[in-house]
Prior knowledge:
190 residues, alpha+beta, four-stranded antiparallel sheet, 4 strands, globular, binds flavin mononucleotide
Amino acid sequence: MEVLEAIRTRRSVKRLTDQSPSRRDIEEMLEAALWAPNHHFTEPWQFHVIAGDERAKMSEHVAAAIERESTPGDEAAAAAATKARGALLRAPVVIAVTVCVNDDPVLALEDYAAACCAIQNLTLAAWSRGIGSKWRTGAMCLYASAKEYLGVSQDDCVVGYIYLGYPGRNAVGKGRERSRDCIRWLGWNE
Ligand SMILES: Cc1cc2nc3c(=O)[nH]c(=O)nc-3n(C[C@H](O)[C@H](O)[C@H](O)COP(=O)(O)O)c2cc1C
C-alpha cells in the first residue's frame, strides 16, 4: 500500500477478531516503529508485546491491585477493576509503548513525541498489511501496577497500548471529516 493511501485510509478499529497477526507481521510493525525520527538518537522507547496468556495475567495483576488498594463499597474502584480485568483481552496482541522520561523537560517532550511517531509508523505498517489497530490510553497508562508488571520504572511514561488484530465486521468507522481551518499559509503567494 502506498504511504499516502495508508495515512488517508487508516482508522482506529473498534472490534478485532481473535485471529492473531503473525510474529513476522509484528516484527515488521516494530521495525517500522524503530525508524521513527528521534532527536539526538535517544531511542527513548520500549515496546512490550503482550499476547496469549500474558494479556489475562497483566489484566488480572492490575485489577487485583485496584481491588487491594480500594476501600470496601467503593463502586468506582470496583468498576475500574472490572474494566481492567477485561482490558487487554480485547485484542489478540497488545503492544505497550513506554518511554523513559528524561530529567530535561525539552528532551522529555522530544522523546514523548518520538514515541508517538513510532506508534503512528507501527499502526500504518499494520494497516498496510490489513491489520487493524487502536491506540488506547486512559487509566491503564497510569496504574503503578501496570508499570510494575511491564518492569519499567514508575517514572517512565506509558504512551499507550496499541491493540492489534484483524478487523471484525463493520469494525472500521468512517472517522470524522477533518477540518482544514487549522492550516495557515504565511508568505505564500499562490
Ligand atoms: C494519544 C491517543 C490516545 C487515544 N486513546 C484512546 C482510548 O483510550 N480509547 C479509545 O477508544 N481510543 C483512543 N484513541 C483513538 C482515538 O479515539 C482515534 O484515533 C480518534 O477517534 C480518531 O479516529 P481514527 O484513529 O479512526 O482516525 C486514542 C488516540 C490517540 C492518538
